[in-house]
Design brief:
7-stranded mixed β-sheet, alpha/beta, 33% helix, globular, 7 strands, 272 residues
């Protein structure tokens, strides 16, 4: 007698994981700030062998952006790393910026970032929700800043995306620029988790932890940016495809990558 699964077209078999995904995601807090703080509170370690889904454990991805940053960032300005998590990108940015300020909505993430960055004198960290009104106040006194933001916008709703960008416009001033790199996977959530190694039989541990504890992510590409980037407030300087590197535990080859999108933005003064 043949297995019932054999009667299901191969292209559809990945959807057999859907009930499990729904069951796992049911426990994720609805409040974004609570979800992220609980997530980071439960992280035992960071790096390539940790539970952190998007931590490749190397600076390879950042080095891929280096040419773009060199073209557009004024190297004399501080860099604000928005959504810094445990500070991996903040520490890497400190190698070519006079001052880096990592900001995250999670106090537990900031505490870990401070611990892991001990001894690096030009990096500091603050717990702050950058989607709130006045979220950028006091970060860098009155000086213009560059902003680095990787993997944040695709986990926010549209209203929070727009609010964050408005705060960043005030932060960059005249001389600063925003560099963003975001996940831009074109498939649906089932196809996304399948791309990351999930199947009906197993789900990689970093991915399962993210599904259990965090709100469902979306995608962020040119269309999403256009919806939240008013042309009277921003100029798009450069954009294109990017590759977001994830934890090497995500697949057998230790080489898991997600299609992404990068953009460089220049702020406009009101009425400009």
């Amino acid at each position: 007698m043949s297995s019932p699964l054999k009667s299901i077209p191969a292209a559809w078999r990945k959807y057999l994981i859907l009930p499990k995904l729904l069951s796992l995601s049911r426990s994720a807090p609805k409040d974004r700030a609570i979800a992220w703080d609980r997530y980071w509170a439960g992280i035992a370690s960071t790096g390539a062998q940790s539970e952190v889904l998007w931590d490749s454990g190397s600076d390879h991805e950042l080095l891929g952006y280096r040419g773009i940053l060199d073209r557009h960032f004024d190297s004399s300005l501080p860099v604000v790393d928005v959504g810094c998590g445990h500070g991996g990108f903040s520490r890497a940015l400190a190698a070519f910026s006079p001052r880096v300020i990592g900001v995250d909505v999670s106090g537990h993430a900031v505490a870990r970032a401070r611990h892991e960055s001990a001894g690096i004198t030009n990096v500091s960290f603050l717990a702050r929700d950058m989607t709130r009104p006045g979220g950028c106040a006091g970060l860098v006194e009155s000086m213009d800043s560059n902003v680095f933001i990787r993997g944040v916008l695709h986990v926010l709703n549209v209203a929070d995306q727009a609010a964050l960008l408005e705060n960043l416009r005030r932060l960059v001033g005249v001389r600063g620029r925003v560099f963003l790199a975001e996940t831009n996977f074109s498939g649906n959530p089932v196809e996304y988790v399948s791309h990351l190694g999930a199947s009906r039989r197993s789900i990689p541990a970093p991915l399962e932890m993210a599904i259990r504890k965090l709100p469902m992510p979306g995608r962020f590409g040119p269309e999403e940016l256009a919806r939240v980037m008013p042309p009277d407030r921003w100029t798009l300087v450069e954009d294109g495809p990017a590759t977001i590197e994830t934890n090497p535990l995500m697949d057998a080859d230790g080489d898991s990558r997600v299609p992404g999108y990068f953009a460089v933005l220049k702020g406009k003064a009101p009425g400009q």
